[in-house]
Design goal:
Strand content: 15-25%
Helix content: 40-55%
Structural class: alpha/beta
Number of helices: 10
Number of strands: 6
Oligomer: single chain
Radius of gyration: 19 Å
Largest sheet: 6 strands, mixed
Distance between the termini: 71 Å
Length: 247
């Protein structure tokens, strides 16, 4: 009787493992979109970011880039991040394989309420995003974190350490630096560090093979920059990345 129960338990375990293996759907890219919602993101800027992300994921050029992959689909999740310990998975892992799925994901981004409004822990955002990639139900050869922000890391863990740990796990960290004109900045040392925010992101935030920084000259141009950035990430090709990197 005991042997019979053991055999049944073993059969159930094997069946469960087979089902899990079948559930690990193959995609071309696992992409965690990590949006800065810190206090420097005043409400109009916050809404422009939300609108920019939503519009970019449904852009025909982005969908064309997705269809150019071997599996013709990617998996993405969407994260809000702010200060230390303030990270939230706003939209869990979803397959994007065409206009309908992209539109649904974009609608969820646009409708999502703001999660935080505190300091800026880029390191915390990267660490949280890396953890989401580790728990993704999908599989891909390429893993990437897409960090947007308008200022330097000023809370939580060291950003370079977080970046290096993500890269060690095979994750590429890319950035989109949103520039703020000095006269409009409430915290100049945060939004306009020595050498500029693009240089700060290049030196401290991005990492991994082929990683890059995209620049949004202001919040109103964020959507256009996001389109270029998504195409560059999805394409996974150095030439196409350089082409997309033109401001």
């Amino acid at each position: 009787m005991r042997m019979g129960r053991c055999l049944l338990a073993l059969a159930a375990l094997v069946s469960s493992q087979i089902a899990t293996a079948r559930a690990a759907e193959q995609v071309d890219l696992l992409l965690a979109l990590a949006m800065d919602v810190s206090r420097s993101m005043e409400q109009p800027k916050f809404l422009l970011q939300r609108e920019g992300y939503a519009a970019a994921i449904t852009n025909p050029q982005v969908l064309e880039a997705i269809k150019s992959g071997a599996h013709q689909k990617i998996a993405i999740c969407f994260i809000d991040w702010s200060g230390a310990g303030e990270q939230k998975l706003v939209i869990d892992w979803s397959i994007i394989d065409g206009a309908d799925s992209a539109r649904h994901f974009g609608d969820l981004i646009f409708e999502a309420p703001r999660s935080f409004n505190d300091r800026t822990s880029i390191g915390g955002g990267i660490t949280f995003a890396a953890a989401q990639i580790a728990r993704s139900p999908f599989e891909a050869e390429r893993h990437a974190i897409d960090v947007s922000g308008d200022g330097t890391n000023n809370a939580g863990r060291d950003v370079q350490t977080a970046r290096d740990q993500a890269v060690a796990k095979g994750i590429v960290v890319n950035g989109i630096a949103i520039l703020t004109e000095l006269q409009y900045s409430r915290i100049p040392e945060h939004t306009n560090p020595p050498g500029g925010l693009e240089k700060y992101y290049r030196d401290n935030v991005i990492g991994g093979p082929g990683s890059f920084v995209m620049v949004a000259e202001d919040f109103s141009s964020f959507g256009r920059s996001m389109v270029k950035k998504l195409i560059a990430e999805i394409a996974g090709d150095p030439l196409r990345r350089r082409t997309a990197s033109v401001r």
